[in-house]
Amino acid sequence: MKLANSVAVITGGARGIGKAITKSLLQNRAKVYFLDLDVTEGKIVQKNFEDEFGKGKATFLECDVTDTNKIEGILSNIVKENGHLDILCNNAGIADGTNIDKLISINLTSVIHCTLLGVKYMDKNNGGKGGCIVNMASEAGLVYRTNLTVSNGAYTASKHGVVGYTRAFAKNAIMSGVRLNCICPSFVDTDMVKFGISKSPEMKAAVEKLGCVSSDMVAEGFIQLLNDEEKVGEAMTISAQHGIGYHDFPANL
Predict the structure, then answer these.
(1) Does residue 87 contact residue 30 with C-beta atoms inside 8 Å?
(2) Catalytic residue status for 155
(3) pLDDT, tens digit, 9 for 90 and up, residues 70-117
(4) Can you tell me the distance from the alpha carbon of 131 to that of 173, in angstroms, rounded to the nearest whole number?
(5) SS3 label, residue 180
(6) Which residue of the set 33, 121, 144, 155 is catalytic?
(7) What sign has the CA pseudo-torsion 30, 112, 200, 242?
(8) Helix %, strand %, coil % of the chain (to 5)
């Protein structure tokens, strides 16, 4: 797709993968709205992006992705301001499973709601221009490794849900002119992985064995996925061992 002058929304965009994706889009001359709960960090990041790319190119908006009404209001205002929405990345997520309901709400339920809203505002049959939605899943959504997180399996379940939902809904979304895909990185050098390493000896050993990829590498994959018009319902994989590729799912029965 044409990235120059496109309008993008990134959730969880103030740090880590979301920040790297926002920067990559700005480098490709997109206009980006990045959402996050961390107001302090969000404002700092916006200032840094303004200094590098100019004012009005990157806009921080405080938002809890579990607040569906707030998300819809933001998307509606963005479309009113720009006339269109072209790219949505559902990136926000947590790994701490102390509160299982919160983890599932952020990692899976909000992804479903935000995807549906994204399609609503991109729908070519409803005045939109079509577009791309990318859901950030995880290698944990394709395989499972015992005791690698502190969420008692809930994180793995949530990411399997993201992969399953993305694949199941992609053919519906494309009828609206929206390409829906997901990205499944292995360990990424982020605060989330550092948190997991600090809590799980098994995860620390796995990271030492398999290695970490950078947030910039995930952002590289994201841009590649946007530009590949043939990809619908795919799960991009990114790992230190194998680089950027796609998961080979068995044929549907």
Answers:
(1) yes
(2) yes
(3) 999 999 999 999 999 999 999 999 988 889 999 999 999 999 999 999
(4) 10
(5) strand
(6) 155
(7) negative
(8) 50, 20, 35
